[in-house]
């Protein structure tokens, strides 16, 4: 594979130092991580180009790189904390930090499997903790055991394993490593055997999976794993793998005769989230999600999991996580744009919207936007917003942050995306209803500047209100509220304090419509009955005959009621 333009995308702070044969210690793991990240950075675009399974969304190389980047950052942080003293980090400490970083930063199907492979390695090499200051080393036999455990755990994490994929490559690497370990090979010998076994298995994947054979490509995830194993061999031997680790044809996926037919195959959404839950609860979660969709991968352990699934009902997938424990860092991606990208196309323009509710996320997805779902009170970090911009895969992106508290993070993410060649405009929406107003006038075929002006004007012309329940006594701009009072906010300030949700909503609507309006948007929270919407619609019709009303379900994580007046 030819090096891509991303080789210098992220400076690697740690300078890899080749190890002596059989010296598998914490420093070797750090070198392995740095070399793997660099290799995936070079191969990123080539791997994206051959991504056809399970979804032809051209992001496997990117997902593997971002997962490795998260793992490498966590490993660097761990070394910084441990080595502030005089003693070196231990092997166990290093592999555990590395695996944890991959777990919390895993992206997509391939990144999630890579995270579980690293966890399997950590389960063996991190089995002897020792003091933080010890400098433990692992033998060739121990490395072989670690790679075998990694393959076993990766297979177990996938609900319905398919051969001809990244799993097949991992299994072949493990078998080759076991043979080298049984022959008393050094750690470098085992690494080389695993690398060669993976390369051979990868070359066979087009004959094992029909989708690969039709496209004339090897498995993209397996290709990334070969790069990671090549980095392991280089870290232990000091020898650099060949520039082209396998003989494969990195060609765009052929477009089917009916482009629309491909878009309709499989579930419409990818749902990913971190989950705090017990192992028993996760077992039940697997069964529930398996009935909702496909490409189910659940990795992790010790109370923290990364859940990945493709579904048609993203709300149900998140709801299943809520039943099991506490889901967070929820990402929902609509596959319409992703499959277009898999055909080698890059959208001219896309919209990324931050929304506080599953229903709102689905609504934005149906409108073609990439949604970033947040809980009430949570603020997405810059990496999450940047990841959403990248997933939109467009030359131009309009970012709708949905809250004043997100402006700084949105601006920083936009700046980083611009450095990658994406034209980004941030519209300072302060509520989800302003984002909906902006989406309603979005014109992807018009000029970028005119589209941004129109969306900004629509958002700015939308007054926004929200109903919330006071958690404690507090002083507000409308007076003193008590715990349990219903607070009616207009444009971010408390304007009404009431005891009843419906009556307070009517009071808020009356104030908001006092200065005019043509359209009222109501977004109902998960616990609010439909009867409230009917009552408010009747209230608007009775007092404002020329005003139309539209109602949406915000879904879980949304406020009791959001109101927009345009």
Structure description:
This protein is of the alpha+beta class and 566 residues long. 49% of the residues lie in helices and 17% in strands. The strands form three sheets. An eight-stranded mixed sheet has the order 2-3-1-4-6-5-7-8, sandwiched between helices. Helix 3 runs antiparallel to helix 4, helix 11 packs antiparallel against helix 12 (314-324) and helix 17 packs across helix 18 (448-460). The longest helix has 24 residues, at 26-49. It is elongated, with a radius of gyration of 26 Å. Residues 1-13, 17-21, 129-136, 245-264 and 340-344 have low confidence and may be disordered.
Which structural class matches the secondary elements?
alpha+beta
Number of strands: 16
- Residue share in helix: 40-55%
Span between N and C termini?
A: 53 Å
The main sheet orders its strands as: 2-3-1-4-6-5-7-8
Sheet-strand content, in percent, reads 15-25%
């Amino acid at each position: 594979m030819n090096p891509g333009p991303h080789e210098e995308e992220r400076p690697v702070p740690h300078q890899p130092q080749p190890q002596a044969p059989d010296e598998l210690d914490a420093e070797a793991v750090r070198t392995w991580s740095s070399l793997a990240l660099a290799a995936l950075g070079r191969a990123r675009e080539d791997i994206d180009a051959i991504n056809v399974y399970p979804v032809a969304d051209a992001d496997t190389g990117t997902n593997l790189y971002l997962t490795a980047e998260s793992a490498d950052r966590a490993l660097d942080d761990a070394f910084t904390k441990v080595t502030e003293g005089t003693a070196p980090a231990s092997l166990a400490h290093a592999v555990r930090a590395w695996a944890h970083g991959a777990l919390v930063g895993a992206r997509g199907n391939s990144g999630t499997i890579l995270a579980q492979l690293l966890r399997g390695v950590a389960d063996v090499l991190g089995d002897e903790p020792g003091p933080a200051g010890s400098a433990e080393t692992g033998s060739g036999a121990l490395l072989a055991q670690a790679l075998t455990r990694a393959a076993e755990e990766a297979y177990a994490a996938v609900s319905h394993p398919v051969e001809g994929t990244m799993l097949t490559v991992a299994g072949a690497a493990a078998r080759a490593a076991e043979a080298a370990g049984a022959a008393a090979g050094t750690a470098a010998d085992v690494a080389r055997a695993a690398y060669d076994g993976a390369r051979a298995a990868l070359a066979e994947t087009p004959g094992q999976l029909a989708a690969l054979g039709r496209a004339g490509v090897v498995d993209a995830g397996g290709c990334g794993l070969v790069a990671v194993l090549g980095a392991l061999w280089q870290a232990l031997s000091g020898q650099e793998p060949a520039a082209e680790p396998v003989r494969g044809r990195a060609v765009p996926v052929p477009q089917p005769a009916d482009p629309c037919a491909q878009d309709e195959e499989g579930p419409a959404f990818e749902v990913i989230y971190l989950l705090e839950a017990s192992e028993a609860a996760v077992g039940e979660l697997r069964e529930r999600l398996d009935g909702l969709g496909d490409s189910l991968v659940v990795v992790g352990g010790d109370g923290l999991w990364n859940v990945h699934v493709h579904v048609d009902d993203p709300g149900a997938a998140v709801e299943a996580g809520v039943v099991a424990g506490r889901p967070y860092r929820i990402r929902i991606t609509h596959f319409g744009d992703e499959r277009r990208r898999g055909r080698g196309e890059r959208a001219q323009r896309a919209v990324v919207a931050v929304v506080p509710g599953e229903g709102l996320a689905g609504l934005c997805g149906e409108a073609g936007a990439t949604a970033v779902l947040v809980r009430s009170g949570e603020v997405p970090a810059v990496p999450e917003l940047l990841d959403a911009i990248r997933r939109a895969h467009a030359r131009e992106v309009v970012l709708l942050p949905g809250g004043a508290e997100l402006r700084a993070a949105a601006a920083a993410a936009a700046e980083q995306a611009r450095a990658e060649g994406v034209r980004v405009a941030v519209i300072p929406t302060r509520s989800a209803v302003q984002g909906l107003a902006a989406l309603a006038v979005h014109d992807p075929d018009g000029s970028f500047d005119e589209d941004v002006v129109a969306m900004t004007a629509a958002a700015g012309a939308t007054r926004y209100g929200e109903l919330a329940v006071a958690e404690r006594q507090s002083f507000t701009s409308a007076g003193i509220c008590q715990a349990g009072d219903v607070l009616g906010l207009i444009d971010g300030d408390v304007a009404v304090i009431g005891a009843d949700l419906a009556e307070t909503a009517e009071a808020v609507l009356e104030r908001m419509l006092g200065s005019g309006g043509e359209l009222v948007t109501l977004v109902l929270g998960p616990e609010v009955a439909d009867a409230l919407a009917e009552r408010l619609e009747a209230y608007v019709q009775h007092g404002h005959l020329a005003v139309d009303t539209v109602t949406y379900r915000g879904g879980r994580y949304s406020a009791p009621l959001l109101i927009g007046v345009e």
